[in-house]
Specification:
The structure is a single chain. The chain is of the alpha+beta class. It has one domain: Methyl-cpg-binding Protein 2, Chain A (2-Layer Sandwich). Helix content is 15%, strand content 23%. It has helices at 45-53, 127-136, 164-170; strands at residues 4-8, 19-20, 23-24, 26-32, 39-42, 83-86, 99-104, 111-116, 123-124, 156-157. It has a five-stranded antiparallel beta sheet, covered by helices on one side. Strands 7-8-9 form a three-stranded antiparallel beta sheet. The chain is globular. Bound molecules: zinc ion.
Length: 172
């Protein structure tokens, strides 16, 4: 189940640079090997997005990380020392020029996702926002970018890894 994830160390931090209350919170990108199930740290968000975008048809394995194999010990362990959020496989790569941003609600209950536009005019929070933007600013669709290249599906928050205060608030 836990295939790809982003994790955070500050009480408030997934993947594209989550922000908590305006604070960036994703500190480490990682992917789980489909063969040995160890977690490997992915050095950049770009590489992470690449892996995530085709995770189903091209699962991650240790040997895809340069210099690594399944014989190496895990880069990082899934435990409570950080809060983990697990991304949905095959989320599309963020189109060039746009920035995908996430925020974790203060009570740890939910992650919200939006895109920043290349021209900084507004934040896109829904597929309708994206559609309207691409219609208003056709110069940013590069001739092929469409609503399908944006995803507002947010990662699953692993409640068992939330700090005690947040986890308590999120119980409900
Ligand atoms: Zn492996």
């Amino acid at each position: 189940m836990k295939k790809i994830s982003t994790e955070k160390t500050t009480p408030q931090q997934p993947k594209t640079q989550p922000e908590i209350g305006g604070k960036k919170w994703v500190e480490i990108w990682s992917a789980q090997c489909g063969e040995c199930f160890k977690w490997r740290i992915i050095p950049s968000e770009e590489e992470y997005e690449e892996i995530r975008s085709k995770f189903i048809e091209d699962p991650f394995v240790c040997s895809k990380k340069p210099g690594f194999s399944c014989n190496d010990k895990a880069d990082i362990e899934y435990d409570k020392s950080r809060t983990w959020v697990i991304d949905k496989p095959n989320t599309p790569k963020t189109p060039t020029g746009f920035k995908r941003r996430m925020t974790l609600r203060r009570n740890g209950s939910k992650i919200d996702c939006h895109y920043k536009t290349p021209n900084g005019t507004k934040q896109l929070r829904t597929p309708t926002d994206v559609s309207n933007f691409l219609t208003s600013y056709p110069e940013y669709n590069n001739g092929y970018i469409s609503v399908q290249h944006f995803s507002f599906i947010t990662p699953k928050i692993m409640q068992d890894t939330l700090p005690p205060t947040s986890a308590g608030a999120a119980k409900d």
